[in-house]
Design a protein that fits this description.
It is a single chain. The protein has 269 residues and is α/β, with parallel strands linked by helices. It contains 11 helices and 8 strands. α5 links the parallel β3 and β4. α5 crosses α6 and α8 runs parallel beside α9. The structure holds 3-methyl-2-oxobutanoic acid.
């Protein structure tokens, strides 16, 4: 089984094929997603909300991201593991950013994801590329900038805003990013951006014309219930599954039904 790499991701676009990405934050989930054929497993900073219960993604730091990245990387054989660089881990200066990005790679990531655009980000992406560190860029709605944006608002809605997003994407492509996440961008505008780039786009609420799709695993499994983005599709009801298992266990313990004879040790006869 061949490991997914940047060449594979680039070629899927050239061949007109699609690739899949999902987040994972722990060993056993990563193992299942890998076995299911997911191409990219993103240790998203969304884990701040869905796994750690924070209000937004800005409360998580590099130390925590490294722990989750290590756990996910151990569970994966085929997929590309991507560490989402957390808020303020890459903003202060290039040298600190490279140190933190290096830590993510040492923790087992095959690539990193970096939010945003602008001259500083372009030079950071360029430096990573020079050092052989694959980068996925992330533009459109960038959750780490939620306080500046003022909420989870759709981006790139107008002609001018779309041109601006395309200009950012082209700069990121030029700097060496091998793929770009477009988050919460109208489908038609994401199609236009996708058609005008040679690197693949990954939709996170940007419609079906992007080259790949990414969602938060807890949304897909029906586990996270604080909010459900319009663009996320729920494929199961894991909350109910876990609830039912916990309730049955609770009942079995309290009625003396657990453990049974197969579930205990006995002394030697
Ligand atoms: O943190 C995250 O989960 C993301 C998305 C693109 C899914 O960045």
């Amino acid at each position: 089984m061949k490991k997914v790499n940047t060449k594979y991701i680039r070629e899927t676009k050239l061949q007109g094929k699609k690739f899949s990405a999902l987040t994972a934050y722990d060993f056993s989930t990563a193992q299942i997603l890998d076995e299911a054929g997911i191409d990219i497993i993103l240790v998203g900073d969304s884990l701040a909300m869905v796994a750690l219960g924070y209000e937004n993604t800005n409360s998580i730091g590099m130390d925590e991201m490294k722990i989750f990245t290590k756990a996910v990387a151990k569970g994966v054989s085929r997929a590309m593991v991507v560490c989402d660089m957390p808020f303020m881990s890459y903003h202060s200066d290039i040298s600190t950013a490279i140190t933190n990005i290096g830590e993510a790679i040492k923790a087992g990531a095959n690539a990193v994801k970096i939010e945003g655009s602008g001259e500083y980000i372009y030079s950071l992406v360029k430096r990573c590329t020079e050092f052989g560190i694959p980068v996925i860029s992330h533009i459109g709605f960038t959750p780490q900038a939620i306080n500046a944006i003022g909420g989870r608002y759709i981006q790139g809605k107008t002609f001018d805003a779309t041109q601006e997003l395309l200009a950012q994407a082209k700069k990121l492509e030029e700097a060496g990013a091998f793929a770009i996440v477009l988050e919460m961008v109208p489908e038609e505008n994401a199609k236009y951006i996708t058609e005008n780039l040679s690197i693949p786009t990954i939709s996170c609420g940007a419609g079906k014309f992007c080259d790949g799709q990414v969602l938060v695993c807890d949304d897909v499994f029906g586990k996270f219930n604080r909010f459900k983005p319009k663009f996320a599709r729920r494929y199961g009801d894991m909350r109910k599954l876990i609830y039912d298992c916990a309730q049955q266990y609770d009942n079995d313990v309290k009625t003396g039904n657990f453990p049974n004879d197969d579930e205990v040790f006995h002394t030697d006869k």
